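Can anyone check this?
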Amino acid sequence: MKYYLGIDGGQTKTVAVVGNEKGEVLGWGKGGPSNHIREKGGKKRFREALKASVGEALAQAGIKEPHFYAAYLGISGACEEMRKIARRLIKAEEIFLEGDALLALASCTLGKEGAVIIAGGGSVAFCVDKEGRSASAGGWGYFMGDEGSAFWLAREGLNACTKAVDGRGKETLILPYILRYFGAEDLYAIHRKIYSGEVGRPKIAGAAQAVIQAAKDGDEIALEICRRGAEELALACITAIRKLGMEKEEIIVGLFGGIFSAGEVIAKPLKDRIWKEVPTAKFTFPQLPPEGTALLLALKKSGRETTDEIVENIRRTIAERRRDKNG
């Protein structure tokens, strides 16, 4: 039997799955973060994340001496040094390593060409054409960009609250929601938490939910923030598509990341803006979890035809292995 390995590595965790040529997931495992390899201790963290995630997956699969026909790693901040480390740790005929944007795209298009908007803590748009050429827009980080991301929405919401408290702007429902989120009595207490370093970027980004809830409740200021964020995400997507000359083609556009759980307050203005420039765009959400997509790409890139049956096998058995892992 041929074994395949799929790995999804990011800022908070690394997840590995071991599967066979039918797309049946035999083992699932999790390790620590595997990005930012150039930071102090980054190489060690990456090695440990691979060992832990792959080791757990192999243990669940009951495989003691693994040799994979192909392995695919979708890693945030993928680089050649990561490839070298992976080759030392993973015994495989072929090892494919690409950035997490490609993995996000493939999770929505199941390995076909198209575009994806990734909007979580940060934001970026990515596009690939039939020839394999790629283009991107955004992804400049929280200080220089990341428009439409959770951090951006939270920052804009906090700014609206300062204007409301000062009298420079209208009152907004964002304020009571954001006070509740931070567990603060007033905006000055939030100011102290942020500037003292008591709360970091991930916690601040989580305050986007206050803006989104206020928008759903009809708050004009929150709705405007969501509209601007959505249009910025749309602009990044349109720009990436235009770079490849695909704006007249029928194209799949994937919506990937926590921001899209907001529903129509983000999705409607985003879709409307894209349809103005790319009228044949068809929107979708991830069809497989990232680690399942990595397994699909390991099969695809090694020459295996990825049929609907294989996709369904991955979807079904990855859920089973997760349940087994959680008891």
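Reply from J.R.: I decoded it. The domain at 112-286 is CATH 3.30.420.40 (Nucleotidyltransferase; domain 5).
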